[in-house]
Design a protein that fits this description.
about 230 residues; alpha/beta; Rossmann fold; four-stranded parallel beta sheet; three-stranded parallel beta sheet; 11 helices; 7 strands; globular; EC 5.1.1.-; isomerase; Asp/Glu/hydantoin_racemase; Asp/Glu_racemase_AS_2
Length: about 230
């Protein structure tokens, strides 16, 4: 079994979900009392937020993630899993400094969308995910168009993630708001919706909406277990 290297803490809530899912999926695959072979290096989210939001210093944030990735590599990991969607924007800068690969969340998600035969999906996540290019580039390479929410919708999604979900607050009114947003995306032509923040699947269940949703946490973990057991 390969050793999975987790970069966590962004947030601790989603990191805990990753740990649970990786172990559950490994046990389902192998039976008995098998569990995942992994190492976790958890960063202080406040330091990351200070760099990105308060200081606007992307270079410092990237350096922080690189330092963490090197620690994971030194711990014997065979590949790296970042337990956060938007941090994947740093992968192109970080990967050349490492000798082990990243398992990219957008690639795992894109392959699932492709298997479902969808051609146009809406993307929900924090602002840097929705307004950035890393998801759109990966999905475009697979023949999938990305629908980005309108500005007011992006404001609402980003605010509820940053002020509620990463603080372990999952409110029924926010859930209702997300359900209505997904209905609106569908009316505008989205065939499915990428839940492109690892906290959103903790708010929404697949049965909450009729539109296909792609829970990135689950898809990323499935891909990681598949790679670890290959």
């Amino acid at each position: 079994m390969k050793k999975i290297g987790l970069i966590g803490g962004l947030s601790w809530i989603s990191t805990a979900a990753y740990y649970r899912l990786l172990n559950q999926m490994t046990n389902q695959a192998l039976g008995g009392v098998h569990s995942a072979h992994l190492i976790l290096e958890s960063v202080d989210r406040q330091r990351y937020v200070d760099h990105v939001i308060h200081d606007g210093d992307e270079a410092a944030a990237c350096a922080m993630i690189l330092e963490t990735a090197k620690a994971v590599q030194s711990g014997g990991a065979d590949f790296i899993v970042i337990t956060c969607n938007d941090v994947h924007r740093f992968v192109p800068q970080i990967a050349p400094h490492l000798s082990i690969p990243f398992l990219h969340i957008a690639e795992a998600t894109g392959q699932s969308i492709k298997r479902a035969g969808l051609k146009r999906v809406a993307l929900m996540g924090v602002r840097k995910t929705m307004e950035g290019s890393f998801y759109q580039s990966v999905l475009s390479s697979l023949g999938i168009e990305t629908m980005v929410p309108e500005a007011q919708e992006r404001d609402y999604i980003d605010k509820t993630i940053m002020e509620e979900m990463v603080k372990d607050r999952f409110l029924p009114e926010t859930k209702s708001g997300y359900v209505e947003l997904i209905k609106a995306f569908h009316k505008r032509g989205a065939e499915g919706v990428v839940l492109g923040c690892t906290e959103i699947p903790l708010l929404l269940d697949a049965g909450d909406v009729e539109v296909p949703t792609f829970a990135t946490t689950d898809l990323h973990c499935r891909a990681a277990v598949q790679e670890a057991l290959a």
